[in-house]
């Protein structure tokens, strides 16, 4: 179908396109859409879904800052795979918002959904069990999911060191840092530079405690 613009279903923004192709399942894509466009679509969707959420730091920073920082860390270290970067931007949408797996599959495809599901906790379990399972599962994640996990932990550990949750005691901060080290142990071997970045962030955070 030829048209000059289409409304993006993830953010309801009109975008100029050439030829819109609609699949049998109702999904759409734009031939020639750039990777930048695909990333901005994921960022726009994440910003919308996390719009009412805040981080727990003293400034109550917008939650979207976190997912953007995860993607930024990955690109800083040369990660260019579009699926990985979209998953980084979307990694908390199913776990922390009303987004459904079907919705992510419809808008961003099965590969992105698969990575997001790998790093999504089952919120029906108690927190201690969820943390235990993250340690147990981390060695078995796909490479893409390990990259997202590394970016996520780098972002979180950096925040715990520089701008920790306002109500966290020193003991809780140290326990969290120790836990991340166990999770990342299972991700090692996938990207040396990201692992070194995590190690430096961890050292800095511990020095601040």
Automatic annotation (TrEMBL):
Domain HD/PDEase stretches: 59-166
MF annotations from Gene Ontology: guanosine-3',5'-bis(diphosphate) 3'-diphosphatase activity
InterPro entries xref list: HD/PDEase_dom, MESH1
Pfam family, one: HD_4
Organism: marine metagenome
The protein, known as: HD/PDEase domain-containing protein
């Amino acid at each position: 179908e030829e048209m000059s613009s289409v409304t993006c279903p993830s953010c309801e923004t009109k975008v100029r396109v050439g030829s819109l192709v609609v699949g049998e399942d109702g999904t759409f894509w734009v031939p020639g859409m750039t990777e930048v466009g695909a990333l901005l679509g994921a960022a726009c969707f994440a910003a919308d879904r996390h719009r009412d959420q805040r981080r727990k730091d003293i400034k109550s920073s917008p939650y979207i800052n976190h997912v953007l920082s995860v993607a930024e860390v990955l690109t800083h270290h040369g990660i260019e795979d579009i699926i990985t970067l979209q998953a980084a931007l979307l990694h908390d949408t199913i776990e922390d918002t009303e987004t459904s797996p079907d919705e992510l599959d419809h808008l961003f495809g099965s590969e992105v959904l698969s990575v997001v599901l790998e790093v999504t906790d089952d919120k029906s379990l108690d927190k201690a069990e969820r943390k235990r399972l993250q340690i147990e599962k981390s060695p078995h994640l796909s490479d893409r999911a390990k990259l997202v996990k590394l970016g996520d932990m780098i972002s979180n550990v950096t925040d715990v060191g520089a701008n920790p949750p306002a109500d966290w005691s020193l003991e809780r901060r140290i326990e969290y840092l120790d836990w991340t080290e166990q999770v990342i142990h299972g991700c090692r071997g996938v990207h040396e530079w990201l692992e070194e970045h995590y190690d430096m962030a961890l050292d800095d955070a511990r020095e601040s405690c």
